[in-house]
């Protein structure tokens, strides 16, 4: 076997893994503030405080806002997803084993990316829980609870600029579909289904999506209403693959890997909607 064949195999496989990760891997990465090309084991996300406008006297000096500056540190970790591809198995099967392993690796790393972002969301302190009907811990994802979260984001001056997102569990998605304002096409038309081919729609100025990986704690599913800039996701190494031939196994070992991390940047920009499940 020519050595160049292995090189072609490796390049093609890595391309397939990268494409699969971009296409099917992570659902939440586009919904947060993502930074690529990080060098080192951690990175900093800067936070700038609010400015206050003031008047000045004629010919007087312009008042200084004295903005508060702070930073949030995001630590990165390395993750791997590997498997064997037997050289002769590829000749005996009707499926493309390389593509199957590529997709499986991309899915695994994509789930890990979402897991990191969900862990960051779980550290948010604000919860849409109240005493009004439909807003208690024993309630599911009700219209009242969603509107309470909406009010909390507004009261915190979180921008309503099209960059708000809401992530819910599949049971909660079914509950939302029982809310007329969410399900009825008279309220949410086809133009408000932003990502064709996936379950997502726009409502209350936010993009809503179901996700199977949200935390289930003591009978409550943690759903979230948040702004994109409130959560940071950092990447030191994008998804890449390393493929080596092992003669003693008569197989290729395929290792997919990445280095990423996530952190909560602005607690005021995230509201948890715990829903009984």
UniProtKB/TrEMBL annotation:
Domain of life: Bacteria
InterPro entries for the chain: Phage_capsid_2
Pfam family name, one: Phage_capsid_2
Name of this protein: Phage capsid protein
């Amino acid at each position: 076997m020519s050595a160049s064949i292995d090189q072609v195999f490796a390049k093609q496989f890595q391309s397939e893994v990268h494409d699969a990760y971009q296409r099917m891997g992570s659902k939440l990465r586009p919904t947060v503030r993502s930074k690529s090309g990080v060098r080192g084991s951690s990175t900093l996300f800067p936070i700038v405080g609010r400015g206050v406008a003031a008047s000045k006297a004629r010919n007087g000096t312009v008042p200084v806002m004295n903005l508060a500056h702070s930073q949030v540190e995001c630590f990165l970790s390395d993750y791997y997803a590997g498997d064997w591809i037997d050289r002769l198995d590829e000749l005996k099967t009707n499926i493309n084993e390389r593509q199957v392993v590529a997709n499986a690796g991309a899915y695994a790393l994509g789930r890990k990316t979402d897991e990191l972002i969900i862990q960051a969301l779980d550290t948010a302190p604000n919860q849409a829980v109240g005493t009004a009907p439909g807003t208690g811990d024993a309630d599911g994802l009700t219209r009242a609870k969603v509107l309470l979260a909406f009010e909390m984001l507004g009261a915190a001056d979180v921008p309503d600029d099209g960059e708000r997102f809401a992530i819910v569990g599949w049971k909660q998605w079914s509950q939302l579909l029982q809310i007329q304002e969410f399900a009825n096409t008279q309220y949410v038309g086809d133009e408000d289904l932003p990502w064709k081919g996936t379950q997502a729609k726009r409502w209350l100025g936010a993009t809503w999506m179901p996700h199977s990986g949200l935390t289930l704690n003591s009978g409550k599913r943690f759903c979230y209403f948040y702004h994109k800039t409130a959560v940071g996701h950092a990447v030191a190494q994008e998804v890449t693959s390393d493929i080596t031939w092992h003669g003693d196994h008569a197989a290729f070992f395929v290792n997919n890997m990445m280095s990423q991390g996530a952190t909560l940047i602005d607690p005021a920009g995230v509201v948890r909607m715990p829903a009984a499940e």
